[in-house]
Amino acid sequence: MGTHYKGPPDIRQALDAYIKLVRASESVTSRVIRHLDDEGLTVSQFGVLEALFHLGPLSQRELAQKILKSGGNVTMVIDNLEKQGLVKRERDAEDRRLYRITLTPPGRKLIKNIFPPHAEKIASQMNILTKDELQVLGHLCRKLGLQEAEG
Fold it and tell me: How many domains is the chain built from?
């Protein structure tokens, strides 16, 4: 389903593509993240665990940038992960004003166990596309994502 907007053709085309992009993204995401409820995790909590697992300890600001969430949202996410014993805050050795967020052993074990099936689920959802189509899609999404915001 595209747009019903009756404006100029170039704007209708952009709106139509945007609607399809968002609907496809939300559709795939909803199928991929179903298992997170079984683990008692939100999408943001999973994102934090995944970032820490693959990148190592990060500051809250770095985590916010990685998972595309506000600093306040990330603080709440980390608070909840800390209560579950999955992450801990540690003072940065070089800049005592900063805290580094690190995985605890239970957090590392959890993400190590759930990430591979998660990645497989994503791959199974994307296998409708050819390798060339995946490459083009990746390129186009990156181009859109890196576009400078208009003022």
Answer: 2
